[in-house]
Design a protein that fits this description.
Blueprint: E1 2-3, H1 10-13, E2 31-37, E3 41-42, E4 48-49, E5 59-63, H2 67-72, H3 80-83, E6 98-100, E7 120-125, E8 132-136, E9 139-143, E10 149-150, E11 159-166, E12 169-175, E13 191-194, E14 202-205, E15 212-217, E16 223-227, E17 232-236, E18 243-248, E19 251-257, E20 260-265, E21 268-272, E22 280-281, E23 288-293, E24 299-303, E25 307-311, E26 317-322, E27 329-332, E28 338-342, E29 345-349, E30 354-359
Parallel strand pairs: 4-30
Antiparallel strand pairs: 1-18, 2-5, 2-6, 3-4, 7-8, 8-9, 9-10, 11-12, 12-13, 13-14, 15-16, 16-17, 17-18, 19-20, 20-21, 21-22, 23-24, 24-25, 25-26, 27-28, 28-29, 29-30
């Protein structure tokens, strides 16, 4: 069923029906955030910490929960511990801990002199260099390799629930912020795009109505998404202007490769070779809730056992590293570095080293 430009398919408005029994559909909509400090040296586990270019007193609050799963009303394919993981905080400049969610009132612009991370919804690598773009509840931030955080880009504080980079174009969805132009839509952004790395944004489709909490782009340019009020995979082959429904999915993340579109679903890892019309189980795959494509076209993901799992070319899976609690965002750079946001902060993992780029404490 197609979604025309500026209009909403009936499927978009259809509420998600979870196959889980009521006892397992309990949403956990409280999030803890506190004050972390960007430091240097090594932590108590001997893991290297990135050295910031500015003062060691640069601080930012962090919040960690599986955001896409919570806000779509779908419990991630995980044990109960995933839902109950929170960031243990060492408070360095503040003594209060607040409880908030994505619908919580934002601090006013005058309150924030430093980048504030309330929730991390996604991370992508800047194709122009070594920086990372961090999609958050308060806009798109830029993270340099030395740990320096800046933003939000152009002062735009939109809540980028869904966020992906295709070539040099951002596609995003979510909710407007205090500085978001009205033409981008409210209460939901629909699909918006930026062709100048977040300096300016323009509406594409479903303006004001749809709220995608997962967005990803395939190698052929196809966009795939999961909307908060829709049980179907949504697919666009024309830069997000029109969308059609694929298979019904109870999934929390997507990743696209030359082999097809992968979904982290309640029943396990699924793959579709027909642009999401049908899915089949990936035999032997661990239970994953966060996915990213590798440069060679295989898949890696974060498992419900708090581990980074990497697929080999022959389809075998290797447990590569153990995380600190649940991951909130995960990506893989073109040169094969794994970037994850977990309880330690934003962390880079390679076969040789683990480096905390932006520590949470």
């Amino acid at each position: 069923m197609a979604v025309a430009d500026g209009t909403v398919d009936a499927a978009i408005d259809r509420p998600v029906t979870s196959p889980l029994p009521p006892s397992n559909r309990r949403r956990h909509d409280r999030h803890l955030h506190g004050q972390g400090k960007v430091g240097n040296g090594r932590n108590s586990d001997g893991i290297a910490l990135a050295k910031p270019s500015s003062s060691a007193d640069t601080t930012f609050p962090l919040t960690y929960t599986p955001a896409a799963a919570l806000h779509r009303g779908v419990r991630p394919p995980a044990t109960r511990k995933i839902m109950n993981r929170f960031l243990p905080l060492t408070v360095t400049t503040l003594t209060a801990i607040a409880i908030t969610g994505c619908a919580a009132e934002r601090p006013s612009r005058s309150d924030a002199s430093l980048p504030v991370i309330q929730h991390i919804h996604g991370i992508v690598a800047d194709p122009r260099g070594e920086d990372l773009f961090v999609a958050t509840h308060g806009g798109i931030l830029t993270l340099a390799p030395d740990g320096e955080m800046s933003g939000p880009i152009a002062g735009e504080d939109l809540d980028a629930m869904g966020f992906t980079l295709r070539g040099e174009t951002f596609f995003a969805s979510g909710h407007p912020g205090t500085q978001t132009p009205s033409e981008l839509g409210a209460p939901n952004l629909g699909i918006i795009r930026s062709d100048d790395f977040g300096e300016t944004w323009s509406p594409v489709s479903l303006t004001g109505s749809a709220d995608f909490h997962v967005l990803t782009a395939g190698p052929d340019g196809t966009l795939y998404g999961l909307a908060s009020s829709n049980a179907d995979l949504l697919v666009s082959t024309d830069d997000g202007r029109n969308w059609f429904s694929g298979a019904a999915l109870s999934a929390v993340d997507l990743a696209a490769t030359e082999e097809g579109i992968y979904a982290a679903a309640e029943q396990g890892l699924l793959r579709s070779s027909d642009r999401g019309a049908t899915f089949a189980a990936v035999e032997g795959a661990p239970l994953l809730y966060s996915l990213a494509p590798q440069p060679d076209g295989t898949i890696a993901g974060i498992g419900t056992d708090d581990a980074l799992w990497v697929q080999a070319a022959d389809g075998a899976w290797e447990r590569r590293a153990t995380l600190s609690g649940a991951a909130q965002a995960f990506t893989i750079t073109d040169d094969g570095r794994f970037i994850v946001a977990d309880e330690r902060g934003i962390v880079e993992i390679t076969p040789e080293t683990t480096t905390i780029i932006a520590p949470s404490q």
